[in-house]
Amino acid sequence: MSTEKETARSMKNNWLTSVSEGTTVPAVAYLRGLQEGNTRDSMRRALQRIAELISPGSDFSSIPWHQIRYEHAADIRQRLTKNFAPQTANQSIVALRGVLRASYFAGLMDEREYTTASSIKSVRGTRPMSGRYVTKEELDRLLGTCDITEIRGARDAAMIVLLFCGAGLRRSELGRLSVQDYNRDRHILKVYGKGNRVDVQVLSPEVTWWIDRWLEKRGASSGALFPGLHFNGSIRSGKGLTGYGVYVALQKRAEEAGIKHISPHDARRTFISNLFDEGVDISTAQVLARHSNPSMTTRYDRRGERAQRAAVEALYVPDSSSVKNGVTKE
Q1: Which DSSP state fits 38?
Q2: Helices (H), the chain
Q3: 257 exposed, middle or buried (CB, 10 Å; 0-12, 13-18, 19+)?
Q4: CA dist., res. 276 & res. 314, Å (int)
């Protein structure tokens, strides 16, 4: 009996550094169940983040996820809270719950083990959001690097306008667009987003003008709306630009324009911030951003102090002449 207790105690204390054969299935199953692209990559990094906390230098595929119990999950949460911002920590907790669920469905955990281990709470707190707002002057400079009389310039210009001004697309969404998803007569775009969502995005005539200029160079044949290009400018057959391809194209234009680093997601932040700047209500902004809840949309607002100052200066403040204080307001 004492041997069994010692074994149980040893497993509880040392499970973090143990490796079991055949335990990679839950992690693989969880990741395969996610949308291919940035979502899957983000959650793979989240699992790797946990693996590094559990056993520095280990790979997430070597972690015996099915052996995690509530006390282990609580310890992981504590380490995440200590080492990462709340948003990053919570992303890792979501990934952990996903792998635990996969372990349960694979029959590697019973219901009580799964329920208790996955019951850990999310981390509370906020941090200043990453990313930046791209000004109108910077956007003009970006477009100034694009010669729309040649194919690469026309593609990049249309891509930049669509990202920053047209739809605030995620880079993975941009790469999945096909020519058939664009309706130039109705000025709409069918977007395949996160969570297997399909949305119809309304575009302004000004935005469609740039897309039409690109299609004049590309041609109207079926295929990716924004394909990769060979060095000589000819179109690559197959899928559209990868998320990394969008990043590289945008970064190259930023360097040419002499602008500090700009990420594709800064375009999304800028798009949503500009909606708020124009007085668009939160409900409409949420729909245009294709978010599942309005709180996520507000987190993309990067107008910062400028918007806050404009808001408080618009508030009514009584004139000093309305009170008897012996002070004359100049």
Answers
A1: H
A2: 2-14, 25-32, 38-54, 70-83, 86-105, 111-117, 136-144, 151-161, 171-176, 205-218, 243-256, 264-277, 282-289, 294-298, 304-313
A3: middle
A4: 15
Residues 6+ apart with CB under 8 A from 170: 38, 193, 194, 264, 265, 268
132: helix, strand or coil: coil
Q: Which of 131, 140, 135 is nearest to 300 (CA)?
A: 131
Distance in angstroms (rounded) separating the CA atoms of residues 95 and 41: 11
Tens-binned pLDDT, residue by residue, of the chain (330 aa): 444 444 334 434 444 433 333 345 788 889 988 877 667 888 999 999 999 999 888 899 889 999 999 999 999 999 999 999 888 899 999 999 999 999 999 999 999 999 999 999 998 876 656 678 888 999 999 999 999 999 999 999 999 999 999 888 888 899 899 999 999 999 999 998 876 788 888 999 999 999 999 999 998 888 999 998 888 878 887 788 988 899 999 999 999 999 988 888 888 888 888 888 888 888 888 888 888 888 777 777 766 666 666 667 777 677 666 655 555 444
Cα–Cα distances in angstroms (integers) from residue 23 to residues 58, 108, 181, 321, 324, in the given order = 14, 9, 41, 76, 78
Amino acid (1-letter code) at residue 78: Q
Architecture of the structural domain at 136-307: Orthogonal Bundle (1.10)
* Beta-bridge partner residues of 106: none
Residue 317's identity, in one-letter code, is V
Cα 214–216–219 angle (5° rounding)?
100
Rg of the chain taking only CA atoms, in angstroms: 25
User: Other C-beta atoms within 10 Å of 206: how many?
Assistant: 10
- Residue 55: is it exposed, middle or buried by C-beta count within 10 angstroms (0-12/13-18/19+)? middle
